[in-house]
Amino acid sequence: MLVFALRAIGMYFLALIMIRLLGKRALGELGPFDFVVMTGVGHTVVSVALDKSLPFYEGIVILATLALLEYIMGYLALKNQTLSHLITGKPVILIDNGQIVKENMAREKFNADDLLQELRKQGIREIEDVDKGILESCGGFSVILKEEDEPVTRRDLGINPRIQSTVPTTSTISRAEFFARQQEPLLAREGISLPGLLQSIDQRLDSICRRLDWLEERWQETSADEK
Predict the structure, then answer these.
(1) pTM of this prediction?
(2) Which of 38, 57, 172, 202 is 20 to 30 A distant from 3 in Cα terms?
(3) d(C-alpha 74, C-alpha 139), whole Å
(4) Would you give the end-to-end CA distance of the chain in angstroms?
(5) Cβ-based burial of 106 (10 A; exposed 0-12, middle 13-18, buried ≥19)
(6) Residue 96 is inside which H or E element, if any?
(7) CA-to-CA distance for 123 and 130, rounded, in angstroms?
(8) 4 and 42 in contact (C-beta within 8 Å)?
(9) One-letter-per-residue 3-state SS of 4-59
(10) What is the pLDDT of residues 22-49, one digit of tens each?
(11) What is the pLDDT of residues 149-166, one digit of tens each?
């Protein structure tokens, strides 16, 4: 029994060291290749820990080989976008401008119940509110709302809007173009001084007050007509 415990402890720490060396990417949502590697790690740990006929050093060699494969494939995928798409796959749009893309759902074996479940998880009431619904290569589901359905932002209120990125997350561009756009100088935007900000807020409040006065007059007229 002590032998099994010691082998299990040894394999546990070896697997832990391997995952730490691979970085945080190995701890996120797994892509196809990552899933295969982690499955192999689990199988190796259990087999070596429970089977005394397997030499301990063989488990070390197998874990080191899997770690090396993960590192090499990750490096190659980083350097070559085509290889990255081949290994991990590409994101697939399942909802486009509030409309379900049936062809993509059929190709990904993603049924309507799965889609509705993912939308409910993210608090989406209506499919029509979704600009893009994307099935990521790791199996996760991302939702981008239409502009008119997004929460109010600082820019909507006119409060010193932040400089926006030149690369929208819904774009399917090459890595070279992605980094090129990041290198481009963003358009400079004038900040709002405190007096100007206060004036803008005051104008908005006046507009709201006028709207409320109009609604109150309409309500009084309606009440008088009913009497």
Answers:
(1) 0.53
(2) 38
(3) 18
(4) 91
(5) exposed
(6) strand 92-96
(7) 11
(8) no
(9) HHHHHHHHHHHHHHHHHHHCHHHHCCCCHHHHHHHHHHHHHHHHHHHCCCCCHHHH
(10) 666 555 566 667 777 778 888 888 888 7
(11) 777 666 666 665 555 556
